[in-house]
Amino acid sequence: MKKVVISPSILSADFSRIADEIRALEEAGADAIHYDVMDNHFVPNLTFGFKFVEDAMKNTTMKSDVHLMIDRPEDSLDAWLALKPAALTFHIEACRDTGNTIARIREAGVEAALSIKPATPVSALLPWLSSLDAVLIMLVEPGFGGQAMLPETVAKIEELRKLAPSLCIQVDGGVKKDNYKKLTALGANNLVIGSGIFAETNYTKAIQAFREM
Fold it and tell me: What domains, with CATH codes, occur in the chain?
């Protein structure tokens, strides 16, 4: 398996010192910053918008991984693409024109990814797998950090890996030091980690712990 990508979720960071947090993650060896954008409509929480992500991106050379947990992502897509993130993820459950949205993202030179909530089956992704750069499997109900992983979601990783042997499979929700090896063994190769990193005082040691195979 390729190197597992470590993507800290900035949602768990201290927003009052966000630039310092991002620089600390980069020095600690993180691969990407995961931005959880929530609209208090598709999910029951409100986080941050364009300006926050734009300013945060200026503080790092790490890959920017923007996760849109918003209704009708196609309506604001141009504004997000204008930020030139490395990757943009949207939810299949929230989009009215999935194929066109994927095409617009890729035409902008940005990696396109689809995400599915715990109740959505892997089969819902089948029409789009060949046009995607990645799939994000939510291991919790999206909306809040710090949740425990839902055990029934884990089987989706293996199911998807069999369907798409070379696809980037990202997982998000309750990823901890005591369960990540199971997730990567099933085929996950991109770990979104929130409290599993930010709850630690030493980010370098925390990230290194997730690289031990």
Answer: 5-209 (3.20.20.70)
